[in-house]
Design a protein that fits this description.
Blueprint (H helix, E strand, L loop, with lengths): L1 H19 L16 H10 L5 H13 L4 H4 L5 H30 L1 H12 L5 H6 L1 H4 L5
Helix pairs in contact: 1-3, 5-6
Amino acid sequence: MALKTTRDRRFDEIKAAILRSKQVKTKAGKPAKQIAVSRQNEIYSDMSTTTTFDFLYRLRIRSNYRDADTFLSGNFGTGSINAFYEDLASLARCSLQALETITALALGEKWFGSAVHEFSKRGLPAFAHKHSVLARWPEFI
């Protein structure tokens, strides 16, 4: 749903930009106030793929303007809100693990393991062991 909404909002922005640029004309040659459905379908299908990162960017922009109420509204039950944020946390963990894997491949497993081991020696709070690189790579601790 979040990806569909993000895509639809991008589409609306593109349509508005086309109409503002006055590229679309009526038969009389005046700037059109609407775009034909066939042209809209063409524009929609030519759009680049909408990704999770597009949604995260939209979430970031809304958060910057303190408009995150949409994501915390009464439309969601408490369980849904918790599930939404758990999903965001899971996405972040998976993204970090992918980046860490690329780092390990680029710099070597020995170097990466040493860096994780050194990180584990810091006086970290308990949650760091549960939610950081240490939880994702326990074999290096």
